[in-house]
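Thread amino acids onto this structure.
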């Protein structure tokens, strides 16, 4: 950890030393979400373009020099998180009318979402600090990733999800043996209950908005994108946004590489929400960009977050990168599921394709130009939520077992 200098508050900018059990700024309180500050001079000694090209660790831990994990922690026993594929798209690129399009498929992570990146770091920290229990509240994916990594590494997991969480995610939680609290309330109420319980019982807190080590795991997705593009990043990177921790991490990942001289620019970041729940898009339209609590009315459950827990990092990602906020309807999200599946063979959950829907809308609105290059992040697998997948694609026709019936069915047309 000698490369970690300390914390910097995202509100007051004050810096103070690293204490592993600190989650927020002592001066700004709850809203004072923290950045972790690295000694880039030290990092440069071990992490350069050359060392990356030679690094054969095909997991997110290839970037551990830029992660707040003790050098003594053995990560080889963890689930294999990260180094997900970056696909070059030809069909969807042409259909959308772009110069180049890449799809980062984070649905292939061990519990099938990008959240594994944060949960891996959280579980490492909990073990380093001697906890036997880790806890979080989540719309579903943070929960299942936390429970999966905890199961693998022998930690207990106490998980809070709102009762609307899709069955696929609940099934994962049951299989991973989490102590599962399905809360009869919305995500906001779920979060509050988890907070009170974590305070009372003293478990390790994996809540992504609050714990600053979470975005340090999520930022590895941006680092992989940069490496997979041979350090020539695209003009834009598009990401769906709920609490704001993921998009915040995406910016931090590119920023770290920029500060180290590994990339020479930071992509413009497109933050995408559903019109059914888009507090960031609403805030973008008012002076001061103040967020207002919003009802949670989108089928993209992973980004149905009315009170985002990490607003500062999310807004910084978009504004500091000269990016844009955009909202798309739930119908656009459902049709993007088919667009991505049929053109590219990538099956993504609703929140997972929201970025793709956002790129399409941004092209239509002239925000992204046809001579530009784009990376979209698919943040979670479609198998998590088959009910909405079937809503998007329709139910199959049942065919009688004869060639005649097959011919008449029209399926082969
Ligand atoms: C959590 C999640 C997001 C959004 O991440 P936030 O950190 O909440 O903004 C997007 N897509 C999927 C599939 C997710 O699970």
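Threaded sequence (413 positions):
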């Amino acid at each position: 950890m000698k490369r970690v200098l300390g914390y910097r508050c995202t509100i007051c900018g004050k810096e103070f030393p690293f204490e592993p059990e600190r989650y927020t700024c002592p001066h700004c309180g709850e809203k004072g979400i923290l950045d972790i500050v690295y000694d880039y001079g030290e990092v440069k000694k071990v992490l350069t373009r050359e060392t990356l090209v030679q690094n054969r660790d095909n997991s997110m831990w290839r970037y551990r020099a830029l992660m707040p994990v003790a050098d003594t922690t053995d990560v080889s026993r963890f689930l294999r998180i990260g180094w997900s594929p970056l696909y070059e798209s030809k069909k969807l690129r042409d259909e959308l009318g772009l110069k180049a399009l890449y799809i980062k498929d984070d649905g292939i992570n061990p519990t099938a979402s990008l959240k594994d990146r944060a949960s891996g770091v959280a579980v490492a920290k909990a073990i380093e600090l001697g906890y036997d229990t880790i806890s979080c509240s989540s719309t579903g994916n943070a929960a299942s990733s936390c429970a999966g990594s905890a199961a693998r590494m022998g930690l207990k997991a106490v998980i809070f999800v709102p009762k609307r969480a899709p069955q696929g995610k609940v099934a994962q939680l049951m299989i991973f043996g989490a102590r599962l609290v399905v809360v009869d309330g919305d995500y906001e109420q779920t979060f509050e209950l988890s907070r009170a319980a974590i305070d009372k019982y003293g478990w390790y807190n994996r809540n992504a908005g609050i714990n600053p080590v979470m975005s340090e795991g999520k930022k590895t997705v941006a680092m992989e994108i940069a490496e997979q593009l041979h350090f020539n990043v695209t003009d834009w990177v598009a990401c769906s946004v709920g609490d704001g921790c993921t998009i915040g991490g995406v910016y931090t990942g590119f920023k770290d590489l920029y500060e180290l001289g590994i990339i020479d620019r930071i992509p413009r970041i497109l933050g995408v929400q559903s019109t059914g729940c888009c507090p960031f898009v609403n805030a973008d339209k008012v002076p001061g960009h103040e967020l207002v609590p919003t009802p949670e009315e989108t089928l993209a459950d992973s980004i149905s977050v009315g009170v985002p827990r990490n607003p500062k990092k999310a807004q910084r990602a978009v504004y500091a990168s000269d990016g844009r906020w955009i909202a798309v309807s739930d119908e656009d999200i459902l049709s993007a599921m088919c667009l991505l599946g049929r053109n590219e063979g990538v099956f993504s959950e609703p929140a997972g394709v929201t970025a793709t829907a956002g790129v399409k809308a941004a092209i239509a609105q002239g925000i992204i130009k046809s001579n530009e290059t784009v990376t979209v992040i698919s943040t979670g697998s479609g198998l998590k939520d088959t009910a909405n997948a079937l809503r998007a694609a329709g139910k199959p026709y049942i065919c009688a077992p004869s060639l005649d019936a097959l011919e008449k069915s029209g399926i082969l047309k």
